[in-house]
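Thread: Newbie trying to understand structure tokens

Hi all, I'm a second-year student working on a class project, and my supervisor (Dr. K.) asked me to get a predicted structure for one chain before our next meeting. I've only ever worked with sequences, so writing a 3D structure as a token string is new to me. If someone could post the tokens and maybe explain what I'm looking at, I'd be very grateful. Here's the chain:
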Amino acid sequence: MIATAEPNTAASAGPGRPPAVLQVIPALAAGGVERGTVEIAAALVRAGWRSVVASSGGPMVREIERAGAEHVILPLAGKGPLNIYRNIGRLAALIEAREIDVVHARSRAPAWSAYRAAQRTGRHFVTTFHNIYGGETRLKRLYNSVMAKGERVIAISDFVGAHARKVYGVSPEQLRIIPRGVDLDRFDPESIAPPRLIALAADWRLQDDKPVVMLPGRLTRWKGHVDLIDAVSLMADRNFQVLFVGPEEQKPHFRDELVQRIHARGLSSVFHIVGACRDMPAAFMLADVVISASSRPEGFGRVTIEAQAMGRPVIATDHGGSRETVRAGETGWLVPPNDPKSLARALGEALSLGSAERLALAARARGWVAQRYDTRLMCDATLSVYEELLFPQLASAEMTSAVA
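---
Reply by user tm_fold:
Sure, no problem. This is what the structure looks like when written as tokens:
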């Protein structure tokens, strides 16, 4: 049950006002963490709560404001000790001025500031583990450990939750597993008007008579671009086109390396690096197969659920969150990481699906995502975490009722 801000109801965290949540994040650039922040901000507003987000800014600020939430610019992207220390006072002042009840930190550097600010002001503190955090040194483990200090610690997958328990000692009482979600209204095959597809296909100069294989993700080494190039080079039938869709990181030499590798394998007519895309639902509609070939385990992997929501066959590496989001043999394929031969074999099978098989897979994939990964489920579960802290008597009553 999500409490709303009706007068004289339990939703009021203070006399005559609705509860207020502050989410703290380094910046609002494009990405899964940022998308989740926007979605929770909007859900809070819909529920009648007050929603505030603090970050150093970015292109997604407009989405926060369009949702009816407030965005406050603070220098939260810096990781230096002095900046973290100064942000304690800035956040404490913001918490008091906006009468914040729950502080939710989503990244380590601003989490330290938010943790101390929440302590200083006596507010509830929540964190989200968005991935596993490497702890090669004692200092690094100490830095990461702030994410285990929440009264409630949210993990975005069972994989990440197990890491939080084992490495950082998060207790079962603290931990809540809340998978990321996908907006099924936005990622709906029926909602994509033909002009969107035509415009994107023309922009990318797609060939109408060739299937499209798509690897969405930043151009960074661990996302698996090299493995896909090597996989395609092993295939006898290359009558398809491969798109690398995603922004470049600040390392242009890797793009150059990919271009050189494509050329050396004689695949220049197959591969196309098209850059970032602002209309991913339409992009997935153009794809016949979507690939997530990360060499490192993804904490969750939003690409796989978005593609499945659009009814597309997916091939993902068999580790991390992909083991939870892809139903091997039903909605897609799981292949070992760093294994171009297995990737080539799965790609060949996916491209050989007949029309009836593709339709059946699409129905299974979209049904699976709707059942488990609808963004509304994520939002409801997250707001329920806030309610556990603010209204423990309601949570206790609901648990007693459920047991009865």
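A couple of things are worth pointing out once you decode it. The chain has 16 helices and 13 strands. Residues 58 and 258 are 29 Å apart (CA to CA). Feel free to ask follow-ups in this thread.
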